[in-house]
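Appendix B, record 7
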Amino acid sequence: MAEKKLRMGVIGAGGIARTQMKHLKTYPDVELVAAADISEANLTKATDEYGVARTYADYQKMLATEELDAVTVCTPNGLHCENAIAALEAGCHVLVEKPLAMNAEEGRRMVEAAHQARKQFVIAFQWRYNPKTQFIHHLAKQGRFGDILVMNVAALRRRGIPNWGVFGRKDLQGGGPLIDIGVHVMEMAHYVMGAPRPVSASGQIWQYIGNRPSDVACSWPNWDHESYTVEDLAVGQIRFENGAVMNVQASFAAHVKECWTFDFMGTRGGADFETGTVRCDEDGYMVDKTPAFLPKVDPFERKMRAFVDTALHGRPNEAPAEDGLMIQKMIDAIYASAEAGREVPIA
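C-alpha cells (predicted):
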C-alpha cells in the first residue's frame, strides 16, 4: 500500500512560502497540490521551482476546488486571520507564519475556529527548534535553573529596515520590529520559561530613522520611508502570574550592537542563548558550562517536518497556536502601554 501523503495548499506564494516549499517538496509524504497568490510571478515560481500542481489567483476558489488536508498561510500579517479561518472551516490543518495575527483578538478568533473545526493549528515558530534553544529548554524542564526570575530578550538590528514587502506599514503588519523580529526571541524565551501566563506589560516605542531619507551605507538601503509608519525601536517589560519578568528590546534601526539572543537568571542557575553557556553553582564554586556538541539542525526545516508529522501522523503539536496567542497578547500590551504611557493589564 502506498504511503498516505499530506495534500497541501499554500496561501501566499512569496518569499517565506518559497522557503517552506523548498523543504516540503523533498518530503515523500507531502504533495504540493495548489498555491494561491495575487501575483502571477509568484505562482509561476511555485509551479516551475517547487512542482505545485495547480495555481489560483483567489485562495477561496482554491479551498473550494481542491481536496486539501492542510494549508500553510504565508501572507502579510493583516491577512492571517481571514486566511487561516477560511482554511480551518474548509477542513484543513493549518500552519500560519509568525506572528499569529495583527492582534490578539484576531488570534483568539483563529484559535477558536481551530477548536471548532477540530483541526491542528500550528504557529511557525522555528527558533524553538534551534539546538541551543532545545538544549536550554531541556535543562529548564529538568529544573536545573530553579524558578526563572528575570528573562532578557533582544532582537536588535543597527540598520535593518526591510526594503521589500510591507514591513514598514502598520496598517498591514500591525507594527514594526517588535511584531516582526521581537516575536521570535520572545517566543523562544517564553518557551524556555515554561510558557507562564502574562498578566501586565509596560513599554515604549520610538520612530526616528525609518520615516525619513537616509544616505547611511547599509545592506538594505532605499526602503520606502514615505509609507513607513512603524516603530524603529521598541522596549518593554512583561510581568507573569508566577512573578517572573521579561525585558524586551527590538529594533529595525538603532545605534546599537546587533544581537539576537536571550539570557536569564533563575533561583538555581541561568543561561544565555548567544553562547549556549549555563551558569550554576557546583561543589562550592561558580561554574560556567557549555555543551561540547550540539547537532546541526536547520530550524526552519525542523519546523516544516514537525507540522507534517502533526497533521499527517498525529504527533503532538510542538508549537500550538495558543503559544502564539500568548506572545501576541504580550506584543499588543507593549504597544498599548506605549500609547497609554502606563502599565496595562493583559487579559
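Remarks on this record: The chain has a mean pLDDT of 97. The two ends are 50 Å apart (CA to CA).
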